[in-house]
Amino acid sequence: MSMIHVTTSKGLDTLLDDEIHALLPDVTTKMSPGCISFEGTLEDAYTLCLWSRLANRVLWQLAEGKVNDAEDLYQLAADIDWSMQFKTDSRFMVQFNGTNRAIQHTQFGAQKTKDAIVDHFSENGASRPSIDTKQPDISVFVRLRREQCQIGIDLSGRSLHQRHYREAQGDAPLKEHVAAAMLMRSGWTENKTLPLVDPMCGSGTIAIEAALIATNVAPGLNREVWGFSYWLQHNANSWLRLREAALNAKTECECKILASDSDKRLVIKAKKNADNAGVFSLIQFSHRDALQLTPADTESGFIVSNPPYGERLSELAQLVPLFTQWGKHLKQEWSGWHVSLLSSNRDLLRTLKLRADKEYAVMNGKLECKLVNYALVGDNLEIIGNDAEHPFSNRLKKNIKRLKPWLKTQDTECYRIYDADLPEYNVAVDRYGDYYVVQEYAPPKTIDEQKARRRLQDVLLYLPAALGINTDKIVLKVREQQKGKAQYEKVSQTEKRITVRENGARFLVNLWDYLDTGLFLDHRETRQIIKKEAKNKDVLNLFSYTGSVSVMAALGGARSVTTVDMSNTYLQWAKDNFRENHITGPHAFIQADCLSWLKSHKGKYGLVFVDPPSFSNSKRMQTTWDVQRDHLSLLVNAAACLNEEGTLMFSNNKRGFKLDVNGLQQAGLIATEITEQTIPEDYKRRGNIHKCWSITRAH
After folding, report:
1. What positions does the domain THUMP occupy (predicted)?
2. Best CA proximity match to 151, nearest among 68, 42, 66, 224
3. CATH of the structural domain 2-154, one choice from 1.20.1250.20, 3.30.2130.30, 3.40.50.720, 3.40.50.1390
4. 285 phi, psi to nearest 5 deg
């Protein structure tokens, strides 16, 4: 007899305790977070290795004692007769879990234990065993809880959740033991003759675990290498006897198990995994959308699934409407069924508009998840809510109605239709051709993160219906206060661009890869002013970004346009915009730090446009840049490039910015604020989106 410790994921403790009592009715267990302990025999430990569907590890304790310093740990490990546990030609590793005041780092604790083990062999005249942290023959475990320390052998070797049938999996794999727990919590394991359906099966883990349970297949039956394989206390006869009994315990499957997914590639992977597990013939696989799936007959059963979580923000734009539709579909088509869903996004499950019977906290790997049970009966069959009555939906429709007369006077397919009009829905919604970009402003720290996420999901839920669009036309981004070039840095890698139209020009925009799209919509009127003023003039565009102002100047009849930016990527984008508009002529594209370039540039221009970042600390600049601190020297240097009758337009979007009027006057320059003329109708609500001045020489 020895103390045996059986570990599992957080949230599965009580379920594991029930399983142990079902497998070993005579043991008395003690529960601690993530672990069940009891005194038992080697055969008891083997039984759990073979049969537990919920355990991660089965640990056989060799010693226990108090550890108040490093020497206590060393001595506790040194007192074990390791030559009775494994041979010197066996490779071993130490898994150290826990810390206390004396042992504050697990790596230090593992090293101290390893030293004691190696010294034991050396002191007894044997050769030193080798360390192997990747494929050890023997895994020594150490569990430290305050001053109490336990040392022993990990009989399971690799985690028991690895059933060795899953060679292919999706992006967010469901752990096998968590899938088994879902089936137990759902109630299906008590009604195994009823149908089981997983409509979002991914790599098929839930359906495969269900088939193994339905046929009473021991989950450890196909494992070949165990933590006890090289253990000298291993009883091969006892193990073989238990394994033979498990082989004879298999039964026939008495239920229908169906697994489907909208991704054909995942269905193929699921089939391969089921074949590896030996249960392919027991599962009906199909490539179908969950919204199209209906019961095969009138008999009720269980839906158990691990739907997409929406861990990546960009996924929510598609998932929120999908879950809403799925909730309605479940109510209409699956009456009388039980539903169990696992998700790390509990708020996403709320869009199903179903009342939960029970919910359980569980860890799937490092993700904190909720397993939620529903019964599709009574009130849960009612269609709840009217999208048209939602405040965000109402405001969106009012805005569109208000903008319609203005839009009839405009020649643009890019404009803003909502800008945090309702404080609780803190997003901006911009249209770019057929697409709509939703930018979530980062909520202040005073707003609960879950509440902010829930409100964002409301936006994504009601937006498609209010605009009459499909969800694939929605692009979601988070807009935080950016400094310098941060607003232009990549957030994705699609390299996808579309062409949009504005006032006779065509612009390439990328709605997916950057926080900004390549076209500042609040500068629409500014670009029109540039277009009108540029005729027969030489134009200089500094901090040009993707060259939209340069395009308008060229289309307005500029004699030449010089476009300057530090980024080669954006200069290339500007060139692409010129090609998109079939613009040719004496136009220059210069990659340079505008601040340094201006100091030595001798050219003269009739029109100069300057729209610098608020802040920059780019490595390609000689110093940091702050628009409030440094704008005067920039404008003086830029104005030096003006001819006698030239005009400099200066714009920036730093909140609270104050133009150094006196400094400009001393430099012989006159600034006239034209901000009001440059704010488009769709940005009037946020009139401080930017400020703009026209600057000329004093005569």
Report:
1. 44-155
2. 66
3. 3.30.2130.30
4. -95, 145
